[in-house]
Design brief:
The complex is a heterodimer.
Chain A (H helix, E strand, L loop, with lengths): L5 E5 L2 E8 L2 E10 L4 H12 L4 E11 L1 H11 L7 E3 L5 H9 L15
Parallel strand pairs in A: 3-4, 4-5
Antiparallel strand pairs in A: 1-2, 2-3
Helix pairs in contact in A: 1-2
Chain B lengths: L5 E7 L4 H14 L5 H22 L3 E9 L2 E8 L16 H8 L2 E7 L2 E9 L7
Antiparallel strand pairs in B: 1-2, 2-3, 3-5, 4-5
Helix pairs in contact in B: 1-2, 2-3
Chain lengths: 114, 130
């Protein structure tokens, strides 16, 4: 994986993959809804194919049930054993993860912000 | 929003329009004096309702209607499709309506005047436009 972040751009969504010791950090920014959830799911699964991933949603401002469904699908993939989530999550996103009980299905990484 | 004033807009029933629909609704909610969380609740509920229109309705349009009266913000997401049709290949988890029920004060899914409506009620602290 390159040291240079790779990016996918949609109007209100950005996903970056940053190489870190021991794996990759997948940073999602903006909003996840039905127009961006597929990209999110596909890129996250692709990153998991390369090994350990920390999912960083600290700059994600909005997620609806399309995003929850995308995470659910990722968690059903065997590669999800390599997935941990950065605990820094903005309140609107945390709220829907709690509302749908998805928060309980996630494995959180130690808080080690850069 | 001035009590009695009614906002109505039409959007194409396509995935990329969902963000615009919820953005408009939450902007109007802010003008009702709601908190950031309140505005997010409106955005979330409208996003769910508009997503259902795109996935299930067969309609070419999403209609957003917002009005404030009796101290509440009334938000309707409507379409002119034949009615919500379950899809075997639906990409969702069926969470849309439960989420709307959680974040709104009340909601009703109904067919009225030849169109399907999800009618949601939220607090409007200022009772009208700020």
């Amino acid at each position: 994986m390159s040291d240079t972040p790779t990016a996918h751009h949609d109007p209100e969504f950005e996903l970056l993959i940053q190489s870190e010791p021991g794996g990759n950090r997948v940073i999602v920014r903006g909003e996840i809804d039905m127009s961006t959830a597929d990209t999110f799911r596909t890129q996250l699964l692709q990153a998991l194919g390369d090994g350990e991933v920390v999912l960083d949603m600290s700059e994600l401002h909005f997620m609806d049930s399309s995003g929850v469904a995308a995470i659910d699908e990722v968690l059903r993939d065997p590669s999800a054993e390599h997935l941990t989530v950065d605990p820094h999550i903005l309140e609107p996103v945390r709220r829907i993860l709690e509302m749908t009980d998805m928060i309980d299905a996630l494995s959180f990484a130690e808080s080690d912000r850069r | 929003m001035v009590p009695g004033v009614r906002f109505e807009a039409r959007f194409p029933a396509i995935p990329v329009a969902v963000a615009e629909v919820r953005g408009k609704a939450s902007a109007l909610a802010r003008r009702c004096g709601v908190s950031e969380q309140g505005a997010h609740d409106v955005a979330l509920a409208v996003s769910e309702a508009a997503t259902n229109v795109v996935i299930h309705s067969g309609s070419s349009e999403i209609v957003l209607i917002v009005e404030a009266h009796d101290g509440d913000l009334h938000v309707i997401v409507a379409d002119k499709g034949p009615g919500l049709v379950p899809r075997r290949d639906s990409p969702g988890l069926g969470l849309g309506l439960p989420i709307i029920a959680t974040v709104s004060s009340s909601f009703e899914s109904r067919r009225r005047d030849g169109r399907n409506e999800v009618a949601m009620v939220f607090p409007c602290p200022t009772g009208g436009i700020s």
